[in-house]
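User: I would dearly like some help making sense of a protein record. I have put the entry right below:
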Amino acid sequence: LQVTDRPEPLDNAGGDPPAVQDATTTTVADDESPPPPPTTAEEPIDPSTITVLVANGAGVAGLAGDVTDIVAEAGFETARPSDVSAGEGVEQSVVYFAPSFQEAAMAVAAEFDPVLEVAALPDPPPVADLAGANVVLVAGPDLVPEE
């Protein structure tokens, strides 16, 4: 066994000095500006710009009105509460959205615990008159208050 003070480098076994790589840089012309940084979050939803129609899909008297109050307290504009069209009742509440209003529907759904299901507005819609609403919340039995 032999002990040495300095180990011999293995990559320089041939005796040639190690190669030095030239560093390159890229410059931007004075008339070009760097691209803006990517945005990571979109603007938050302003609830006052979203009209929500709550429709009773459970057949429980007053349910649509009660849920409309919850939505209004969260700052959303609300249309007059309604009932779903005949045969359109639901087993669980759903928040439907018109094209380009998915984020708004998600914001409405998040006002409830647990968060409600969100889906694209079907054709035909679950109510006879959308009343200018961008989002339709069909209230099911899961939103009926326990007595």
The helical segments are 63-73, 102-109.
